[in-house]
């Protein structure tokens, strides 16, 4: 893994630990010679993870839609800032540039980006590792809900297991480096078909 896309909040959240761990993830990525691909902003956890990479002299590629550039939230010190026309183009470019994905705490946008990449993996469009850095149990309820999807017959267990989870940055990166994508198809069949 040479580059990882990180999806996370443009806010800091209510707990200082979110910011601290986002910064630490950035440092850990740089220490592992992994470049960051992210949304390009200087605000919230997005800015913290970028600052963590830059703190250890790592490379950071931001991908920012032009309408957000006009709101003056672009990070000033990135290795490269790519300006795109839309949110869809942003996700496509981030996917093209990365070898894996990590989700940190965030809101609707973070979840939408995370689940799109997970869905693409489920459909076999890529075989990249997809991780969650589960800071302060932020994703516990979501992971419980995903287990409910399995138990209710809407998701295969093998697809649930595509999500790599850890509370520690280095452990998460190690698990992602050793990830092997499932070879089974997405479709759930009735009975013994």
From TrEMBL:
Q: What is this protein called?
A: Cytokinin riboside 5'-monophosphate phosphoribohydrolase
**InterPro entries linked:** LOG, LOG_fam
Gene Ontology BP terms: cytokinin biosynthetic process
| Gene Ontology CC entries for this record | cytosol
The reaction(s) this protein catalyses? AMP + H2O = D-ribose 5-phosphate + adenine
Pfam families the record matches: Lysine_decarbox (PF03641)
Query: Which Gene3D superfamilies does the UniProt entry name for this protein?
Result: 3.40.50.450
Native source organism of the sequence: Flavobacterium shii
What Enzyme Commission number(s) apply to this enzyme? 3.2.2.n1
Give the family per the record.
Answer: Belongs to the LOG family.
Task: Show the taxonomic lineage.
Answer: Bacteria, Pseudomonadati, Bacteroidota, Flavobacteriia, Flavobacteriales
Its transmembrane ranges are none
**Gene Ontology molecular function: any one:** AMP nucleosidase activity
Q: What class of enzyme is it?
A: hydrolase
């Amino acid at each position: 893994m040479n580059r990882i896309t990180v999806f996370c909040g443009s806010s800091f959240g209510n707990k200082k630990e979110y910011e601290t761990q986002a910064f630490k993830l950035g440092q850990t990525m740089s220490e592992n010679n992994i470049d960051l691909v992210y949304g390009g902003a200087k605000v919230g956890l997005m800015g913290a993870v970028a600052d963590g990479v830059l703190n250890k002299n790592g490379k950071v590629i931001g991908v920012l839609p032009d309408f957000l550039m006009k709101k003056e939230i672009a990070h000033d010190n990135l290795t490269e800032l790519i300006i795109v026309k839309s949110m869809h183009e942003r996700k496509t470019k981030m996917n093209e540039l990365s070898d894996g994905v990590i989700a940190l705490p965030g809101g609707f946008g973070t979840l939408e980006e995370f689940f799109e990449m997970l869905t693409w993996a489920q459909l076999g469009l890529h075989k990249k590792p997809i991780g969650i850095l589960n800071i302060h149990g932020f994703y516990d309820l979501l992971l419980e809900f995903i287990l409910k999807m399995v138990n209710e017959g809407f998701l295969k267990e093998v697809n649930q297991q595509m999500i790599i989870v850890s509370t520690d940055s280095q452990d998460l990166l190690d698990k992602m480096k050793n990830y092997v994508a499932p070879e089974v198809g997405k479709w759930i069949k009735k009975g013994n078909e």
